[in-house]
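Appendix B. Chain record.
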Amino acid sequence: MKTENPGMQKSRRKFISMAGAGFASFAIAPHIIMTPQEKPSPQTTEESEWEKDPSKGWVPVSNRKIRVGLVGYGASKFAAAFGFQNHPNVEVVAVSDLFPDRCAELAKVTKCKKTYPSLEELVKDNKIEAVFVATDAPGHVRHCIEVLKHGKHVACAVPAVFGSLEDADLLFEAVKKSGLKYMMFETSCFRADNYAMRQIYNAGGFGKLVYSEGEYFHGPSLSPAPAPTPAKTKTTVPSSYNGWRDGVIPQWYPTHSNAYYVGVTNGSFTEVSCLGMESLREINKGGKNQYNNPFATEIALLRTSEGGMARMGVSWDTPGFGGEMGRIRGQKGSYYGKYQGLEKDLPGLVRPPLPPGVPAGGHGGSHGPLMNEFVLSLLQDRNPLVDIAMSLNMTVAGVVAHQSAMNDGEWMKIPQYRL
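Structure tokens predicted for this chain:
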């Protein structure tokens, strides 16, 4: 860690003062932060009806089938979790996982007859138009660039990059050069509240956002834990491939929280001051892990591209459920579970209908809508919602935030991405 100078002392005092006011409000209204269930109750009758039947009102936009390859069937089984295999405009052409029995299971659940032993082999298949990359987080940039090099559109699990600003620039240039579609599957963007916030924001119902907050909080039982590295010829159920989650830096996995500003406004964070507290978890003590990381909780204060402020936190060593959620306050309105503001003529706030047979899925019913948005972007030849610029603006802020935390809250500038 760097030696502290007077400017850093001043910035740290400023951070603590501002953050302290926010934490005091949590004590007054803890129900805003904590809920007893993973998925908040629907905020409207219409949203409740959507959850009962998300296909109601669906109208096809095309009869064309996008030929898709799916890669990665690890502990979360994400390659199959988003429902590509259920979409009427998708044909799952091939699947892949490094573990043969996982690959076989993925083929079975997606009813796909063709398998490949690796992503590198799958992308050579000329029948495939698009690939969903659900591999280990450290491999996302390399894998997505490999997909793009072979002329295929790509969707990717979070985060877009893993701790590297250089990789962010490489991926950004690769996507722009390719002219192909890239989408990060950030689940918060299609949670019911985030979708409603975005609709209201785009209709002018908030004005500029003065303050935003988001959190990705899980108790220790859900946090990354040490696990043996599996042999490629044998399937185990590890916490992560090659142990990448072991001691992982919280703000390197920031998109579930950062989406409560970037995913609402399509804006960005311009600078950050972040603090962490050394964890009691053995794998973080003294930073004796592969990341030299002592923190399992990092809380960031950020300046937004609108000139407002945001508080975004990631924690997985504090008991009690917190989940993936956020709140916003704007010049013309706020959103704490529902809209409270000056705008009376609100747009539709219910998530778009899904094709019959496509489940809403996990993470608050966001899986199906994310996959459907990617498919529609290909059918309609338009940018997907979480495009490369939004994906990187959600992700790189966390990379810089950790650098700040390792320097005792020093204010740092954040790279900006615009298409």
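Further analysis of this model is presented in Appendix C.
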